[in-house]
Design goal:
Elements (H helix, E strand, L loop, with lengths): L7 H4 E3 L8 E6 L10 H7 L3 E6 L16 H12 L7 E6 L1 H15 L7 E5 L17 H11 L10 H19 L13 E6 L7 H5 L9 E6 L5 H4 L1 H12 L6
Parallel strand pairs: 2-3, 2-4, 4-5, 5-6, 6-7
Antiparallel strand pairs: 1-3
Helix pairs in contact: 3-4
């Protein structure tokens, strides 16, 4: 098994090419997710926004690389891959575990002297300051599958297929371990504006917990509430992309 690559091209996927100088929106997938989850977002926002997505090791075309089972090391590796993109207008969008990773990478970029993000979008995740004790990564395979069914993030027919489960469960369990053992370092806040997106019936995060992201930046904060559960952004994709496009409209590079 090879070590995780540090090359930008290994970590970042681009699905729709367009003119230079556009705002770049870098998307961070949920636990067990992959970069292709954001292909529809890229298709709908192109060519006005240069949508790119992070591909974590241990899945899809990076299955030969070992998973990284903790947020600090994963955020460090992503920061190194993202630094070349920080020279132009850049925003992050992260869903669930991806929201925490986007936040941690944004902190690392600011600490490295990179310009602050145009905006950080955090979706389907309570603020780091609002901890819940969860142990999904310690369950057996059946318990992990039950959690996935509960969140409705994976098609139910795929969760009944043994070959599919054999392929996806290692990455899912790894990512749950990373996010469930994550503890934010105290006293660190961003300067960039944050927009929190949340479903009104998400079992993973309340509207109040999403609103607590306001305490993680010295910049502006906005809260957007959508109909739906943890994967509101797939169940109501059209509404979400329209709001996201509006929120991106006033940023540099648009």
């Amino acid at each position: 098994m090879t070590l995780p690559s540090t090359d930008t091209e290994a970590w970042i996927r681009t699905y729709h090419q367009g003119p230079d100088g556009r705002l770049r929106l870098l998307c961070f997938p949920h636990a067990g997710g992959s970069a292709s989850f954001f292909f529809p977002v890229s298709a709908q926002l192109a060519p006005d926004v240069d949508v790119r997505a992070v591909q974590y090791p241990g899945r899809q075309d990076r299955r030969a690389e070992p998973n990284i089972d903790n947020v600090p090391d994963l955020a460090d590796a992503i920061r190194d891959a993202v630094l070349p993109l920080a020279e132009g207008p850049l925003a992050f969008f992260g869903h669930s575990m991806g929201a925490v990773l986007a936040y941690e990478v944004a902190l690392r970029l600011e600490e490295a002297g990179a310009p602050p993000l145009a905006r950080l979008f955090v979706s389907g995740r309570r603020a780091p300051s609002r901890h819940r004790e969860t142990t999904v990564h310690q369950r057996d395979d059946r318990g992990v599958v039950e959690e996935l069914r509960h969140l409705s993030g994976t098609r139910s027919d795929l969760l009944s297929d043994p070959e599919t489960l054999e392929m996806i469960l290692p990455a899912v369990r790894n990512d749950y371990r990373a996010i469930e053992t994550y503890r934010p370092a105290p006293g660190r806040t961003l300067t960039c504006p944050i927009a929190a997106y949340v479903g009104d019936s998400d079992p993973q995060v309340t509207i109040d917990e999403a609103g607590a992201w306001a305490g993680h930046t010295s910049g502006a904060f906005e809260l957007r509430v959508f109909r739906g559960g943890h994967f509101y952004l797939t169940d109501h994709a059209g509404d979400v992309v329209r709001v996201l496009s509006d929120d991106l409209a006033g940023l540099p590079g648009r």
